[in-house]
UniProtKB/TrEMBL annotation:
Belongs to the universal stress protein A family. InterPro entries: Rossmann-like_a/b/a_fold, Universal_stress_UspA, UspA. The lineage of its organism: Bacteria, Pseudomonadati, Pseudomonadota, Gammaproteobacteria, Aeromonadales. It comes from the Bacteria. This is Universal stress protein. Gene3D superfamilies: HUPs. PANTHER family: STRESS RESPONSE PROTEIN NHAX, UNIVERSAL STRESS PROTEIN UP12.
């Protein structure tokens, strides 16, 4: 049986340090397979309680809309900064891989559903994401990663945090 070809990788980021580590895997796999990379950051939709609080404290409709736009703008700025930092840190001969990034989106929504929906819409063959920053087994992965892993119909690579020792040795 032939293995399915990997043409499109959906790399999902929560903008944590571990997400950058997971991005190395997405780039490496794209290099090995010739796949394109789609970057996705989901900004969690506000809960009804949060929306109510926002309406209570920010009476002005325009100010509320501005606040919501600002959340997406901040995520976008952070995503761009992370990308710039990543490409500065990576070996110069790898910079050609940057052209493999064919889309970079920030979408407001529910993370698991948004990731699964975009993976289908973008015709992805693989999802790559980092394990959550909090302790390993509590959430084994983090609820979003766990749910994506459970519900995805395509292979999903969850990259654990690098060991602190391994990071120190590399920087020494």
């Amino acid at each position: 049986m032939m293995m399915p070809e990997i043409k499109n990788i959906l790399y999902c980021t929560d903008l944590s340090k571990n997400a950058s580590f997971a991005f190395k895997y997405a780039v490496y796999l794209a290099k090995k397979t010739g796949a394109n990379i789609h970057i996705l950051k989901v900004v969690e939709e506000l809960s009804n309680e949060e929306k109510f609080t926002l309406q209570t404290y920010i009476i002005n409709q325009v100010s509320r809309e501005e606040f919501l736009k600002q959340r997406l703008k901040n995520a976008n700025t952070q995503l761009q900064e992370r990308q710039e930092y990543f490409w500065k840190e990576i070996a110069p001969e790898e910079h050609a891989m940057r052209k493999k990034i064919v889309s970079c989106e920030i979408i407001e929504g529910y993370p698991t559903q948004t990731i699964l929906r975009r993976s289908k819409e973008l015709d992805c063959d693989l999802i790559v994401m980092g394990a959550h920053e909090k302790g390993w087994l509590h959430t084994l992965l983090g609820s979003v990663a766990k749910n994506v892993l459970r519900e995805s119909r395509i292979p999903t690579l969850i990259v654990p945090r690098p060991e602190k020792k391994a990071q120190k040795e590399k920087s020494a």
